[in-house]
Description:
Elements: H1 13-17, H2 22-36, E1 41-43, E2 48-53, E3 56-64, E4 76-85, H3 86-95
Antiparallel strand pairs: 1-2, 2-3, 3-4
Amino acid sequence: MSDVESPQPDGLIAPLTQLERPADVVQTGATGLALMLDGFNWVGSRHSLERRGAGRHVLITLEKSKWNRSGHLIQFIVASLTVFDDDLAAWRRATQS
Length: 97
């Protein structure tokens, strides 16, 4: 049998397999997801992935499944995607009557 490369960051699988509480599984899984997405950080208090820079703030709010458990599928649903852009805000101010 050939080895299959995992898309997860190194060191993510072992901690997940040792967790039992859904909140801990979500926290660890979401932190790993943030590492996989370039420049995003997990903000657990808001259940969101956030990235700031170059006049833009991207906010991805996640909903977790109550069935998340270690050793099983960890499921997140994107509840909302919000983008705050300085250039767009300036354009809107300039063009509004």
